Amino acid sequence: MPKSIARAAFAAALLTLTGVASMPADAKQPTYSKSYAEDRAEIEDLMARYLFAIDYFDWDSYVETFAPDGELEFASGTSKGREAIRAAVTSFSKRIGEFYHTEDGKPAILRHVILQSSIRVEGNRAWGRTLWVEMANHGPKDTMKMGTYGIYEDEFVKLDGKWLIAKRRVLNEFLKGRQSGPTNPVRDMDALAVASKK
Question: Is the overall model pTM greater than 0.70, yes or no?
């Protein structure tokens, strides 16, 4: 047997033994449509508007990022529909000073930051997995302190040409029972997108 064929056979056997060759097909990169860049840009803008609205207590803008029947799930429960979502977040906002405050006891200034996002678009539906962190002037002498972190598990819908949040699950990964995984969240997202086409 020529050496090149023997090397190829050895490499194939090694890949099979390590499990690389047996990865499911959905582990491959998706094929993006011609409109993907535009759809992704609009979804990223939507997510930024969501965070600016939180940080500046603009609840009108906040609820407008959701579809009319949108759903928000976070550690204290699930709210469905814009008015229920508004009630949940304004109630939480009033209590934020209990968790984050300056040395003189005033509510701290919070800022949310998105780190990286994987967004999968299929027609008028999309899915996202996004890492986020939250910081505040809650440290010694009101210095910046990294407060919380987690993952957004999102479903988006395009209604009347506009992307909106259909469902957002906020995972605060420092809380027991609110972690992602154990599988790769992006693989889970891709599986949902593939299943939606069947």
Answer: yes
